[in-house]
Amino acid sequence: MFGNGPLAGSNPNLQGFTIGHMDWSGVVLPVELAYFRAKPIGSVVQLTWETTSERNASYFSVEHSLNVSDFTPIGRVMASGDATRPQFYSFVDDQSHQMTNYYRLQQVDRDGSKHYSKIIALRHDNRLPDLAVYPNPSDGHSVGLQCNELDPATLQLTDLTGQKIAFRLVEPTTGQIRLIPQKPLKTGVYILHAPGLKAVHLLVQ
């Protein structure tokens, strides 16, 4: 025993100590998450998760990243709200990339409080189309590319008359390739060509 506070004795061989008022109220998380998983199915990624209990839960925001630090919301799934039995959820990401994809859940309560799940990763190069553009339709200023075993330098962009359109390719540190036309594309349909691959039609609105 050791001394601590004004009521402690002066005898070093046998001392007492006092403890003031303490509040032992526990912290109850609004959602108990059993698991959060990602599975490639064809060219898309299926995300599934299960909760064992929920309290005042509002919704789940599914977030995606290519660099583990910058996450972007890609969808929202409504929560059951209040539940004491397991609840199962799923979401399909049809805009995943050929590099490593990172996902996390942001769980939002009815009072606006937010909580995050662990981050999970998935890479499925061989399950993606050889060539895809996103978003499609596009605003004509920038187009993302998904290229699987393709040299981007062989790409050609044309209008419906076959007129070639100048562009440059940008590949940030995230590995996400973007096609930037020399001049913003006007409203219409354009074609992206690559040797040995089926042409991709790009709609600009």
List the helices and strands and how they pair.
Layout: E1 31-41, E2 44-54, E3 57-65, E4 72-78, E5 87-93, E6 101-109, E7 114-116, E8 120-122, E9 131-134, E10 143-147, E11 156-159, E12 167-170, E13 177-181, E14 188-193, E15 200-204
Antiparallel strand pairs: 1-2, 2-5, 3-4, 3-6, 6-7, 6-8, 9-10, 10-13, 11-14, 12-13, 14-15
Protein architecture, described:
The protein is built from no helices and 15 strands. About 15% of the residues are buried. It has strands at about 30-40, 45-55, 55-65, 70-80, 85-95, 100-110, 115, 120, 130-135, 145, 155-160, 165-170, 175-180, 190-195, 200-205. It is mostly beta strands. It has 2 domains: about 30-125, Sandwich (Immunoglobulin-like); about 130-205, Sandwich (Immunoglobulin-like), CATH 2.60.40.1130. Strands 3, 4, 6, 7 and 8 form a 5-stranded antiparallel β-sheet that branches. A 4-stranded antiparallel β-sheet has the order 9-10-13-12, with no helix packed on it. The chain has a 3-stranded antiparallel β-sheet with strand order 1-2-5, with no helix packed on it. It is about 0% helix and about 45% strand.
